[in-house]
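ugh ok so i messed up the first submission bc i forgot one of the chains. this is the corrected input, ALL of the components this time, i swear. 638 residues overall. if the numbers dont match what u have on ur side tell me asap before i send this to the collaborators (the ones from the other lab, u know who)
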Amino acid sequence: MGVDAETTVADVGEFGLIAEVVPAELSERVLIGPGDDSALVRVGDAPVLVATDVLVENRHFRRDWVEAYDVGRRAAAANLADIAAMGGTTTALTVGFAAPGDLPERWAVDLARGIADEAALVGAEVVGGDVTAAEQVVVSVTVVGTCERAVRRDGARPGEVVALRGRIGWAAAGLAVLGRGFRSPRVVVDAYRRPEPPYDAGPQAARAGATAMIDVSDGLLADLGHVAGASGVTIDLDSAAFEIADPLRDVAAATNTDPLQFVLAGGDDHPLAATFAADDVPDGWTVVGRVGERRSAETVSVTVDGAPWEGSGGHQHYR
Amino acid sequence: MGVDAETTVADVGEFGLIAEVVPAELSERVLIGPGDDSALVRVGDAPVLVATDVLVENRHFRRDWVEAYDVGRRAAAANLADIAAMGGTTTALTVGFAAPGDLPERWAVDLARGIADEAALVGAEVVGGDVTAAEQVVVSVTVVGTCERAVRRDGARPGEVVALRGRIGWAAAGLAVLGRGFRSPRVVVDAYRRPEPPYDAGPQAARAGATAMIDVSDGLLADLGHVAGASGVTIDLDSAAFEIADPLRDVAAATNTDPLQFVLAGGDDHPLAATFAADDVPDGWTVVGRVGERRSAETVSVTVDGAPWEGSGGHQHYR
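and heres the new structure output, hopefully the right one now
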């Protein structure tokens, strides 16, 4: 793709821009480059996982919807989940923090506490960062970690199963509630405010032989689309495999939404999705679909019960 | 310091806020925690340096003063210099990039090119990152690297000398020119737009036995103040040791400034300052001062020709 003088970043979108700036060639030291949940780089003699995730006020969170402490938990969770999705564990975090000068100090301190507490769940620590002034709160978290065996997005093979571990659809239901000016059911609002990624499930899946894995941050259809695209396969989900919990059903009914829409397209819960040989699925994971062959570039890569999903699917920044 | 409900981040300033959020205790794995140029963490079996620096539009750069490509060079340089200042070399970078949707794609692509080209100077690569929308351009770069021997800020001892390597005062002179609406002398404007940190000088100083080292990003007085504070010493600079180049003299005359003000308080050049035993100063370094004893907390930590510097000294974000 060429770069036109009048093209904006909104025109090309997040993924278009990333495609444009990713280097064509990387050295041998870069074992996994851009395009997966984390990069894997040989630093000195050690393979090190590294990932960065940016949260922007009024885009990823609203200060009136989410307390600073929970913004911190979410910012850390999004990053820790990226390391888990490689089969790894986070060791350390850095935080780039930009905020207006009139932000209460309390807010910044609570944010830092939230990041530290979430990191502590996996035994990781904040070891550095940078603080500066900006018009808007921006929290850029970087994580470094290790893994015994890195699980990429591109290893899914036809005949395997797709399995999921962790809550899904809950944050989307919470967001739907908050977006309508309500604060209950509390359980889904809390799920939006504080995701609970199954961090241990990443290394567990890697040990069990997962062939591909991803952190579901933008919605299951969108993120499995990345797995399908990278692996050159199709994925068919079985809608009956998803247990729809009562609070999701309640919010769906109250908002005139198909609860599956929350499950298939909702982001922010950070469950892990992985592909396994049918016999390898470890405890705690739920099989929700199957990997099939890709016939052509026009094939819809992720289907539900054999057909394209008619609802909206995930989201893109700038779009 | 307690956190008052009405205190803002501007009230406490960058360093006050950092002091408030830095964890009281870190694990043994964290060999060097927050408060140095980079952190040093044991990731798996390997000691890994990591640092993050955030550049914000209209604070660290203006799009009408600096081309996107040079913003990229500067953003990378600030981070690579943080690793060099530990005596280390950068292996990989991640970039958190937030920008308004109407930003030309060309700008973002040029920024990425600038980051990659600066990184290539030390053999490092961009391996990942995140792109999102925001009201203002924010570039958060994180670097990971290695070192044979980490040089901290806290090892300076009375009787040692302070030495400097790299350009100093040039970027401040360039900023003074740009701030008055001029574009020349070109050589100082270019120095502001594209710093040239002496990356190799970091490992060189470490091998030579440097006892403390810092990247001069906020101004020599301010940054040596960090070394003096961490080491519990005083530093006296010898103003005659600084060769004032003609372009600095010219800009100083034209703007009615003492050229030493650029040298002592100007930031953004990213030279390295280090302390050594007098016989250990390696090639290419200029001795500019001496380390003395600290008598009390009230002692001014960094003096010039034996007296406090009367001009302004460095800067603080939010202040």
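quick check: Residues 173 and 209 of chain B are 32 Å apart (CA to CA). that seems consistent at least. Chain B touches chain A through 82 residues (CB under 8 Å).
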